[in-house]
Automatic annotation (TrEMBL):
This is Molybdopterin molybdenumtransferase. GO terms for biological process: Mo-molybdopterin cofactor biosynthetic process. Keywords: Magnesium, Metal-binding, Molybdenum, Molybdenum cofactor biosynthesis, Transferase. Pathway: Cofactor biosynthesis; molybdopterin biosynthesis. Its cofactor is Mg(2+). SUPFAM superfamilies: MoeA C-terminal domain-like, MoeA N-terminal region -like, Molybdenum cofactor biosynthesis proteins. Catalyzes the insertion of molybdate into adenylated molybdopterin with the concomitant release of AMP.
Length: 422
């Protein structure tokens, strides 16, 4: 019996060895061993770096009990006990930020205090200055105050000996401030993954040169540069390599010798000039090379020695989708960082969406929030895997899973907002 002919573009081909998306992602993650080497860095150069150890606070934060407002510090026991009664306290002195009032406040006394100033001994409550009248060295306070109000207790943000930030945390601007508040001038960070990337393709031209017939500008090295730089890895652009097996072999093996990860784009499909897979197979091992996703179906994942190799497809949006969905999680794991869960939200499709069953599709969309707070999503234009403009306009992926068919307006879909990872 003759074999049934299959369409080359079909993803439902029964002989198709394309891996389901989740399996591909899990297999890649399982192949990654996090880096362990650490280096000591001054605090200001540590932005975006991953902590090699827990940071334990050597002090209380705040370091002393202080006032949260400008006003008068007093004993709660002196506050009026009845709702209608006023009290009058003797103004004994002042406590300013940096110059505290050291004496004990006696019953019937209060002290002028500014925000952040040390709370004098004996005081446990602050009444804001707008709520008092001051005359001839006495302060009159009405009702409606609460014992302990407007006080920041020593150690209430962070007690001495507590873990301020855990190993694996990637430092953001707030963390730099937190570490500064603990008095840490430097931290131990994990070594950054060294990542090389290159383009393959004889049609590619650099920027600033006019295009000849059949030539295009190389955009993949720019999207990858941006995405890798944002991720905080150590980035090395190895340029464009010609579509020749010997040139690719030389480029891949040199890159693998000095990098933790090598990413190529182009040449992974079945065309006559697509040599990435065969070259990878001669230099190392291929884990798999076809995934049931769109865009990004041909993707050669493997190893050259200990180096992870990602042969991404050439189409510019396929590069971005496979990078964010498969490469980036692997790089986060390699860098020793605790991954942030990616939030997926349910949104109403604001237009029909084409979808073929049997593969996971990543469409480019924009989130809209209606007056009732309901989230909707529309597409940002043509969804071809070469159309970068619709990627550039997008603020989310619309993720249509394997078993889903075409989507009608008004149906629920899942969206992944870019703010979590792009
Ligand atoms: N007969 C088949 N043809 C194709 C299949 C298939 O299964 N059977 N798969 C298609 C899919 S899906 C994709 S994705 C592409 C992937 O092909 P390659 O990885 O071999 O990529 P190229 O052919 O080298 O390039 C594809 C496309 O992208 C442009 N490109 C490449 N590099 C860059 C770059 N650095 N900057 C901008 N644009 C780039 C290139 O000019 C092509 O237009 O294969 C399909 N074909
Ligand atoms: O799946 Mo390919 O990535 O359509 O372009």
């Amino acid at each position: 019996m003759n074999a049934r002919p299959t369409s080359p573009s079909s993803c439902q081909n029964p002989q198709d060895d394309a891996l389901p998306f989740e399996e591909a992602r899990d297999r890649i993650l399982a192949a990654v061993r996090p880096l362990e080497a650490a280096e000591r860095l001054p605090l200001r150069t540590a932005l975006g770096r991953v902590l090699a150890h827990d940071v334990v606070s050597a002090i209380d934060v705040p370091p002393y009990t202080n006032s949260a407002m400008d006003g008068y510090a007093l004993r709660a026991a002196d506050l009026p006990s009845h709702t209608t009664q006023n009290i009058s306290l003797r103004l004994a002195g002042q406590s300013l930020a940096g110059v505290g009032y050291r004496a004990e406040i006696a019953p019937g006394e209060c002290v002028r205090i500014t925000t952040g100033a040390l709370l004098p001994p004996g005081a446990d409550t602050v009444v804001i200055q707008e709520d008092v009248t001051v005359s001839e060295g006495r302060v009159t306070i009405g009702s409606g105050h609460r014992a302990g109000q407007n006080i920041r207790l020593a150690g209430e943000d962070l007690a001495r000996g507590a873990v301020a930030l855990p190993r694996g945390h990637r430092l953001n601007p707030a963390d730099l401030g937190l570490l500064a508040s603990l008095g840490c001038p430097e931290i131990d960070a994990l070594r950054r993954p060294r990542v090389a990337f290159l383009s393959t393709g004889d049609e590619l031209r650099g920027l600033g040169r006019p295009l000849g017939e059949g030539e295009i500008h190389d955009s993949n090295r720019y999207t990858l540069f941006g995405a890798l730089t944002r991720l905080g890895v150590d980035v090395h652009d190895l340029g464009v390599v010609p579509d020749r097996p010997d040139a690719l072999r030389e480029a891949f093996s040199t890159a693998a010798a000095t990098h933790d990860v090598v990413i190529s784009t182009g040449g992974v499909s079945v065309g006559d000039a697509d040599h990435t897979r065969e070259v990878l197979a001669t230099l190392g091992t291929i884990g798999f090379w076809r995934i049931a996703i769109r865009p990004g179906r041909p993707l050669a994942f493997g190893h050259i020695g200990d180096t992870l190799f990602f042969g991404l497809p050439g189409n510019p949006v396929a590069v971005m989708v496979t990078f964010y969905q498969l490469v980036q999680p692997a790089l986060v794991r390699l860098s020793g960082a605790t991954p942030n869960p990616r939030r997926q939200l349910r949104a109403r499709a604001l237009e029909p969406m084409r979808k073929r069953r049997g593969r996971t599709e990543f469409l480019r969309g924009q989130i809209e929030t209606g007056g009732d707070g309901e989230i909707g999503v529309h597409l940002t234009g043509a969804q071809g895997s070469g159309v970068l403009r619709s990627m550039s306009l997008a603020d989310c992926f619309v993720i249509l899973d394997n078993d889903r068919g075409p989507v009608d307006t008004g149906e629920w879909v899942m969206v992944e907002p870019f703010c979590d990872f792009v």
